[in-house]
Amino acid sequence: MRGIIGFIAMLQGALGFIGKTFFDGAWGLLAHLFDLPSVAYLGLFLAGAALAVWGDVDKKRKAERA
């Protein structure tokens, strides 16, 4: 479950950062709800990446135990 949430957070962070940095406004769902700076979108991307990696590592550990 962490991996899916991490992937969604990565996607929202990437869309927001790219849209806000290179185009006229942020893209994604969060842009409709909050007005965040570019750095916050980059942080969201990094937090999502950490969650996705954590979920993948946890899944591999559980598979090794079984």
TrEMBL record:
Protein origin, superkingdom: Bacteria
Record flagged with keyword Membrane: yes
Keyword annotations from UniProtKB, A to Z: Membrane, Transmembrane, Transmembrane helix
Transmembrane segments: 40-57
Protein name per UniProt: Integral membrane protein
